Amino acid sequence: MTKRHLKLAIMILIISAVIFSINKCQEVKEEKLEEVEEISWYEFALRFFELGTYYERLEDGSIETHFFPTDRTQPKVDRWKLAAEVFPFVEYPEDLISENRWVEAFDLLENLLYEYDDYYESKDEEEEEQETLVTDEDVEGFIESNEVSDNLQQAFEEAGIDYDWDDR
Q1: What letter does residue 128 receive in the DSSP assignment?
Q2: Which long-range CB contacts under 8 A does 156-159 form with residues at least 24 apart?
Q3: pLDDT digits over 39-58, tens only?
Q4: Domain range for 44
Q5: 129 and 110 assigned to the same domain
Q6: Cβ(80)–Cβ(92) under 8 Å?
Q7: Which end of the chain has less Cβ packing within 10 Å, N or C?
Q8: Domain match, 50 and 103 both
């Protein structure tokens, strides 16, 4: 092999190593981004339900996070149950909540509200006169912080529920 071929082979090896390194760095960045997104979703669930947390170090050295309900969690769960009784698009996941699977429960609620928002927006675009609808923000605000809009109050009354939101 001549010097020229040797230089060419070394250049190809160097370029290949650089390309491999760039690809590997990109993979690591994507993994970190996914991890950050997952942690952020956990934080949303934690804040929404006002959960407590405790941490457990596993044998492999990693840390596992556990969530548990606090005294401020139960009123939110009760309001979610009530919303499920009134609105057919709201599902109350008793099994997830009883098993402390709060992130999955939060994910379910967010998906239900997202789907309902699509329905609400489609009704809003229709030109014909429409019924008074409760928005997804009304339901989420009710579950999270006991906010009762006029439309929500009307829906409770129509369902035969006398909800006095001042007492909750």
Answers
A1: S
A2: 156/86, 159/85, 159/86
A3: 666 788 888 899 998 888 88
A4: 3-67
A5: yes
A6: yes
A7: N
A8: no
Least Cα distance to 66 among 108, 100, 31 occurs for 100
Q: If we measure between CA atoms, which residue out of 159, 29, 1 comes closest to residue 83? A: 159
Question: How many domains does the chain contain in total?
Answer: 2
Task: For the full predicted model, state whether its pTM sits above 0.85.
Answer: no
| 50 and 126 part of one domain | no
pLDDT, tens digit, 9 for 90 and up, residues 3-29: 787 777 788 888 877 777 777 777 777
What mean pLDDT is predicted for residues 73-91? 91
Residue 83 and residue 55 share a domain: no
Give yes or no: residues 160 and 87 share one domain.
yes
| Alpha-helix runs per DSSP H in 50-135 | 73-86, 94-98, 102-125
Among residues 26, 44, 67, the one where a domain terminates is: 67
Q: Do 15 and 30 share a domain, yes or no? A: yes
* Same domain (yes/no): 77, 155: yes
Do residues 93 and 80 make contact, with C-beta atoms less than 8 angstroms apart? no
Please tell me the distance from the alpha carbon of residue 22 to that of residue 73, in angstroms, as a whole number: 46
Q: Look at residue 155 in the predicted model and tell me its pLDDT.
A: 86
Q: What gap in Å lies between CA 73 and CA 155, rounded to an integer?
A: 24
